[in-house]
Automatic annotation (TrEMBL):
Lineage: superkingdom: Bacteria
SMART domains named among the record's database cross-references: Ald_Xan_dh_C
Gene3D superfamilies documented for this protein: Aldehyde oxidase/xanthine dehydrogenase, a/b hammerhead (3.90.1170.50), Aldehyde oxidase/xanthine dehydrogenase, molybdopterin binding domain (3.30.365.10)
Residue ranges constituting the Aldehyde oxidase/xanthine dehydrogenase a/b hammerhead domain according to the UniProt record: 23-139
Protein name (record): Xanthine dehydrogenase family protein molybdopterin-binding subunit
InterPro entries: Ald_Oxase/Xan_DH_a/b (IPR000674), Ald_Oxase/Xan_DH_a/b_sf (IPR036856), Ald_Oxase/xanthine_DH-like (IPR016208), AldOxase/xan_DH_MoCoBD1 (IPR008274), AldOxase/xan_DH_MoCoBD2 (IPR046867), AldOxase/xan_DH_Mopterin-bd_sf (IPR037165)
Pfam families documented for this protein: Ald_Xan_dh_C, MoCoBD_1, MoCoBD_2
Keywords assigned by UniProt, alphabetized: Molybdenum, Oxidoreductase
Length: 745
């Protein structure tokens, strides 16, 4: 069958959910009206290390409307603790290997030690403040300085998926042979997730069946994890999440609150809604860990890398070997014969850190790209020229060719749009009044990670010529309902206005959680598979039907456009076929299996970031005046939503560079900035002009449509481009994130 000419995919169509969101008709998980709902409020530990000696809940239980106060003494034991990251084909989602309120041990401040359930939220909140907890406290370990002497090198990190050390060649020999070496230690403050919608779950029992309305990146991830924790068959659990108010990783791992809500609902015999406060978000859904990275480069006088050494130190929890995979990309993207990378962890009084936008690459590429800029300065080379001299057409760690690249084009077109040519490389030479002006650039790279499980979607065409395509994925701000309607419409050969995408419910075909920029690729692959399978079914039905004008036609020669099947001079519409054969509808399920992990290709999305900053010479204030990003994310499914995603990532990179920071108090183990009043994020006044260039590259390895994703790549490299621009403006290398006024003064 001839391929349908794409007519919708790639177009910058408006979001189909836009009106529902701005008018308030879109229902988020906390907004679903459930009759007779009770409310749960978490009591968090006030200490970071020790044990609960006693809990006096008598005053709380005596309050009007209080239904239950649940503690470690009354909460049922979990059936099974899922692993941090399941093995391939596992039956749980990622989540820390610790479930609270199973004993009296306290591992971190804010850990759930009690749960109050009441008729109203206000009653539950008030009663929670009346719960008196007595602790036996131990000195906590929370900061890099406290944990440095306790550090160990893990054999593997991230639930055993990633090796704790990566090597090729002889890095020590490569550094000895280098004409020039650059060595820098970069320290990063911890970052916390702050989506507009705090995490929340409503649990409703109907006999032995459990319905959860959960704010999650993956409804099946929630179902699988809760099933393991409660010992329930997955067929007894349904999870609904139509709209999610942002996530950025906080709703990718499945934390304790969905299961606690289910346990509370069973205890009181009523639906229970549990939503975290803004302060509780800082202690309940993970974070990007405080970290220190040491990056050493060796190179010849001509700028050819001889060695790269990348070492990372960071805290992990008492129960998981977790570290952001920061050293992976630095081992892959530049031609260099010798590489050494290693993680060192220490056990701290913290919950297990988790994914946060561009996990690993946001920090790892910062250290690498700042070091590359410093090396270019030492060698007297243009920063782009240095990168081109070390450009590689293969994954430098495996030797496998890239499934697609486009990096050279990103450098060239990004530099042209930004106006890089003619830049005076000497720091501190450009001034406008009190402002020192500088420009910087950095490479962006983010891996395309194959997921383990098959992805499925269902397409159904009705006799009136309209279609519905379904998959379980939630909509958490990426525009998935719009984009997948475009993909489905092209796969079926109908107008996008006649196609609707339904999502966000485990009753729909299984899709994995949309994490790591994998969502667009895997969901579009499943939707495309379902739509084309249905198209083939209908074409085959027509050519076999003696009553069809297409009877006897070669299916390969049948094209479909606007719902009309055509071969030579004969044609028949889908609607006519279904009505004539007395069928109200036709449907097909499509399945896509991601490439295996041993696929002999390097799979990476590339880009180039450029920034111009102004630094007040007397006050140390940094203002980012403009940014340009050029990206090669494979096929673009919707130019408008892709640009929005990339712009959001770039502005977050600005926040990472200049604003976002949290510290744990070394004695109490509590976060210093546990609210949006103290935790700084960029606002409109901080936002500069952002220019985005999209470079489409063909890729027939990653998935059927060649989609790599744009969710993470927009942030990668931004902080390095800004830091490099600050050096160009001032002549000062700042190796901390965020860069503060104090650093520059």
């Amino acid at each position: 069958m001839t391929a349908t000419i794409p007519s919708a995919t790639g177009l910058p169509l408006d979001r189909v959910d836009g009106h529902a969101k701005v008018s308030g008709r879109a229902r988020y998980s906390t907004e679903i009206p459930i009759p007779d709902t009770a409310y749960a409020y978490v009591v968090g530990s006030r200490i970071a290390a020790g044990r609960v000696v006693a809990i006096d809940a008598s005053a709380a239980r005596a309050e009007e409307g209080v239904l239950a106060v649940i503690t470690h003494e009354t909460l049922p034991r979990i059936a099974e603790q899922p692993p941090l990251v399941p093995s391939l084909g596992g039956t749980a989602a990622p989540g820390q290997t610790f479930f609270p309120m199973q004993d009296d041990t306290v591992h971190y401040a804010g850990q759930q030690v009690a749960l109050v359930v009441a008729d109203t939220y206000e009653q539950a909140q008030h009663a929670a403040h009346l719960v008196r907890v007595t602790y036996e406290e131990r000195p906590p370990v929370t900061t890099l300085d406290q944990g440095r002497d306790l550090a160990y090198e893990p054999e593997r990190i991230f639930g055993g998926w990633i090796p704790g050390r990566m090597e090729r060649g002889d890095a020590a020999a490569g550094l000895r042979e280098a004409d020039v070496t650059v060595d820098g230690t970069y320290t990063y403050a911890a970052n916390n997730h702050n989506p507009l919608e705090a995490s929340c779950t409503t649990a409703v029992w109907d006999g032995d069946d459990l319905l959860l309305y959960d704010a999650t990146q993956g409804v099946n991830a929630t179902r699988m994890t809760v099933a393991r924790l409660l010992g329930l068959p997955m067929s007894r659990i349904r999870v609904v999440s139509h709209y999610v108010g942002g996530s950025f990783g906080s709703k990718a791992m499945i934390h304790a609150h969905p299961t606690l809500a289910a346990m509370a609902a069973r205890a009181v015999g009523r639906p229970v809604k549990l939503f975290l406060t803004r302060e509780q978000m800082f202690t309940s859904v993970g974070h990007r860990e405080e970290q220190e990275q040491q990056l050493t480069l060796g190179a010849t006088r001509e700028g050819r890398l001889t060695a790269v050494r990348h070492l990372k130190l960071s805290p992990t929890s008492h129960f998981d070997d977790w570290a952001e995979p920061s050293i992976g990309t630095s081992s892959q993207i530049y031609a260099c014969p010798n590489y050494e990378g290693a993680y060192r962890l220490f056990r701290a009084n913290t919950m297990t850190p988790t994914f946060m936008r561009a996990p690993g690459e946001a920090g790892g590429m910062h250290a690498l790209e700042c070091s590359m800029d410093e090396l270019a300065h030492e060698l007297g080379l243009d920063p782009i020229e240095l990168r081109l001299r070390n450009h590689t057409e293969v994954d430098a760690m495996t030797g496998h060719p890239w499934s697609s690249s486009g990096l050279r084009e990103c450098y060239a077109r990004g530099a042209d749009r930004f106006g890089w040519a003619g830049r005076d490389a000497r720091p501190g030479t450009r001034r406008e009044g009190d402002w020192l002006i500088g420009t910087g650039m950095a490479t962006a790279a983010y891996p395309v990670a194959p997921l383990a499980n098959p992805q499925r979607a269902r397409a159904r065409l009705y006799a009136d010529g309209t279609a519905v395509v379904q998959a379980a994925t939630p909509e958490f701000g990426t525009g998935v309902a719009t984009v997948m309607a475009q993909v489905a419409a092209d796969g079926l050969g109908i107008g996008v206005d006649r196609c609707r995408f339904e999502n966000g419910d485990t009753d729909l075909p299984t899709i994995a959680a949309a994490v790591g920029s994998a969502g667009a690729g895997m969901i579009s692959a499943a939707v495309h598979s379902a739509a084309t399978a249905l198209r083939r079914q209908l074409v085959d039905s027509a050519v076999r039907d003696p009553g069809s004008p297409l009877h006897g036609a070669d299916p390969v020669r049948v094209s479909v456009r606007d719902g009309v099947m055509t071969a030579d001079d004969a044609s028949e519409s889908y609607a006519d076929l279904l009505r004539r054969t007395m069928r109200p509808d036709a449907e097909a399920v499509g399945q896509w299996n991601p490439p295996p992990h041993d696929t002999p290709y390097g799979m990476m999305t590339f880009g180039a970031q450029f920034a111009e900053v102004a630094v007040d010479a007397d006050l140390g204030v940094v203002r980012v005046r403009r940014m340009t990003g050029a990206f090669a994310p494979g096929r673009i499914l919707n130019a408008k939503t892709a640009r929005s995603q990339l712009m959001g990532g770039m502005l977050w990179g600005l926040g990472q560079a200049l604003l976002e920071a949290n510290q744990m108090h070394p004695e109490t183990g509590r976060w210093a900035n546990a609210g949006l009043g103290e935790y700084l994020v960029p606002v409109n006044a901080d936002a500069p002009d952002v220019d985005i260039e999209l470079i489409e590259v063909e890729d027939d390895v990653v998935n059927p449509l060649g989609v790599k994703g744009v969710g993470e790549i927009g942030q990668v490299g931004v902080s390095a481009a800004i830091a490099n621009a600050v050096h160009h403006a001032t002549g000062r290398r700042i190796r901390t994130l965020p860069i503060t006024i104090e650093d520059l003064l």
